[in-house]
């Protein structure tokens, strides 16, 4: 048993490590990457915690997600901090610290291995791959669902090691349900519980348990209610995501499988070499090199075969590996949502499995000699300190939108989305010429982007290059005729240039798309008055 001060000290050090790596975010701004959609330009959230907002949180599929608990947490932050971004960041940091501490306590409770559990939790706490989940306000769903994931594991260990109790089982189910309402990625949690039944809980009756268990069938049956909950969450997510799901004819199944295989291996590489981390990794336009897909397939098949062969002698390798593989399934791109090939935030909980496997394996190799254990201890401390330094640096790139998108462009210079968003940010701070440069580069990469042509038109209009702006507005509408904002902005430019008839047409198109647009109605009224037709203003 550890000394009475050891466990509280480790918890305190984990809290300190998180504060050192991520505490700077208390001085950061919101970034123009979903923070507006989630918080400061979302009228339901920006109003704070209201009865109307609570109803909206449970009934809305806003932002292509159904995660009511996440919406409620953002509303509560607004209630506490207003729209002060530092307060919202602070909540993320505190939640992440709580997840790291709970991870340590859960692993220690399950395995009895104090220092191994502490190391896994420390790597989880300060790894640079955690930055996206912690430093990004809109990714609150990661740290919040992570909290309920760990609480579910804690409750499950208590349930599994005692005689059956409906109350303890209900506690597990309720915490799991809350986690699903924070982020539906937790649908794989019942699968993780089955792995933990194998090791270290030893409930399955399989060889790793050391004996035959009469409960091997029960451990499967008791997961069925949880699987039903996961299925219900999946259905709600499917309907919420709607048009955000990329159709198969846009990205074929073969391309998705190839990208998934490569992403699995890429995330392993980032665990050991976390540099060049970007907010957005564009989907490969021309497909992946065949050698990369083949090499990834062979690597994954080889690792999977090895852990299956060694599962009796090294059960932690089996559990940790399939924890990683299984938890990534919902976000690995087989069902493609958005145009990213992968995202660092997807590793938030899955990579705990990899860390567990590696840590227990290295510890077992070093356990035969005291000198090796001492070397491992020093090396572990150095690893955590180095990771903390990299995490601090990566976090600094999230200080504001301009720094965020500039760094992202350094990591992925050929990303249309990054170039376009950096242009939008530069327009917002008055750097119009720089914005135009990035918009033009974005359109070189994706010339059929209606949004890109519209954004470039806006910047050119502000620069006074009206003729070219009109050309880009028209190109935008040629690609996507239903863009109300583009019709509106083109109408303004045309009206200012005396082309009243065409301006009227575009303002009327705005009102066809959105009859409640009062600005377009007012503009239409003004140009109709110029033509001496005030009676048509209200049409």
Description:
The protein has 539 residues and is mostly helical. The protein has 2 domains: 382 residues, no CATH class; 135 residues, Tetratricopeptide repeat domain (Serine Threonine Protein Phosphatase 5, Tetratricopeptide repeat, Alpha Horseshoe). Helix content is 68%, strand content 1%. α22 packs antiparallel against α23. The termini are far apart.
Distance between the termini: 80 Å
Q: What would you call the shape?
A: elongated
Q: Widest sheet: strand order?
A: 1-2
Number of helices: 26
What is the ordering of alpha helices and beta strands? HHHHHHHHHHHHHHEHHEHHHHHHHHHH
Averaging pLDDT over every residue, what do you get?
A: 92
| Secondary structure tally: strands | 2
Secondary structure elements and their pairing?
Elements: H1 6-22, H2 35-40, H3 43-46, H4 51-59, H5 68-81, H6 85-111, H7 114-126, H8 131-135, H9 140-160, H10 166-180, H11 189-198, H12 218-221, H13 224-241, H14 253-272, E1 281-282, H15 290-309, H16 315-328, E2 340-342, H17 350-366, H18 370-396, H19 401-411, H20 416-428, H21 432-445, H22 450-463, H23 466-479, H24 484-496, H25 500-513, H26 518-530
Antiparallel strand pairs: 1-2
Helix pairs in contact: 1-6, 1-7, 1-18, 4-5, 5-6, 5-9, 6-7, 6-9, 7-17, 7-18, 9-10, 10-13, 11-16, 14-15, 15-16, 16-17, 19-20, 20-21, 21-22, 22-23, 23-24, 24-25, 25-26
């Amino acid at each position: 048993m550890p000394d009475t001060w050891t466990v509280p000290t480790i918890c305190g050090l984990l809290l300190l490590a998180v504060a050192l790596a991520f505490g700077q975010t208390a001085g950061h701004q919101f970034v123009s990457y979903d923070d507006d959609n989630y918080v400061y330009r979302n009228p339901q959230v920006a109003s704070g915690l209201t009865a109307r907002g609570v109803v909206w949180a449970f009934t809305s599929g806003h932002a292509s997600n159904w995660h009511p608990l996440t919406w409620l947490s953002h509303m509560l932050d607004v209630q506490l901090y207003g729209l002060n971004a530092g307060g919202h960041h602070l909540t993320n940091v505190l939640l992440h610290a709580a997840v790291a501490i709970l991870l340590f306590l859960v692993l220690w409770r399950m395995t009895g291995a104090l220092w191994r559990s502490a190391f896994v939790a420390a790597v989880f706490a300060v790894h640079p791959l955690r930055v996206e989940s912690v430093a990004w306000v809109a990714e609150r769903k990661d740290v919040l669902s992570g909290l309920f994931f760990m609480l579910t594991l804690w409750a499950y260990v208590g349930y599994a090691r005692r005689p059956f109790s409906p109350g303890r089982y209900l506690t597990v189910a309720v915490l799991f349900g809350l986690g699903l309402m924070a982020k539906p990625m937790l649908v794989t949690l019942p699968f993780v519980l089955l792995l933990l039944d194998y090791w270290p809980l030893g409930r399955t009756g399989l060889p790793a348990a050391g004996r035959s268990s009469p409960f091997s069938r029960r451990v499967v049956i008791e997961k069925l209610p949880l699987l039903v909950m996961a299925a219900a969450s999946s259905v709600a997510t499917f309907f919420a995501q709607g048009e955000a799901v990329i159709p198969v004819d846009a990205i074929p199944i073969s391309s998705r499988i190839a990208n998934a295989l490569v992403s699995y291996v890429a995330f392993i590489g980032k665990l050991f070499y976390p540099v060049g981390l970007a907010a957005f990794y564009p989907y490969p336009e021309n497909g992946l090199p065949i050698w990369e897909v083949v090499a990834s397939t062979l690597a994954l098949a080889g690792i999977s075969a090895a852990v299956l062969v060694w599962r009796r002698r090294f059960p932690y390798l089996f559990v940790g590996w399939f924890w990683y593989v299984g938890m990534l399934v919902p976000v690995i791109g087989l069902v493609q949502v958005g145009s990213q090939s992968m995202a660092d935030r997807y590793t938030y909980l899955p990579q705990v499995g990899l860390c567990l496997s590696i840590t227990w394996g290295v510890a077992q190799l070093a356990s035969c000699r005291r000198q090796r254990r001492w070397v491992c201890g020093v090396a572990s401390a150095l690893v955590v300190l180095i990771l903390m330094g990299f995490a601090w640096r990566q976090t600094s790139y999230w200080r504001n939108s301009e720094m965020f998108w500039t760094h992202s462009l350094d990591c992925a210079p050929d990303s249309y989305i990054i170039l376009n968003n950096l242009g939008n940010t530069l327009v917002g701070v008055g750097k119009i010429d720089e914005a135009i440069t990035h918009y033009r580069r974005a359109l070189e990469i994706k010339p059929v982007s209606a949004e890109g042509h519209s954004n470039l038109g806006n910047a050119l209009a502000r620069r006074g290059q009206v003729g070219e702006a009109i050309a880009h507005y028209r190109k935008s509408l040629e690609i996507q005729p239903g863009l109300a904002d583009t019709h509106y902005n083109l109408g303004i430019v045309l009206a200012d240039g005396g082309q009243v008839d065409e301006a009227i047409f575009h303002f009327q198109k705005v009102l066809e798309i959105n009859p409640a647009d009062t600005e377009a109605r007012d503009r239409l009224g003004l140009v109709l008055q110029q033509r001496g037709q005030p009676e048509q203003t209200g049409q």
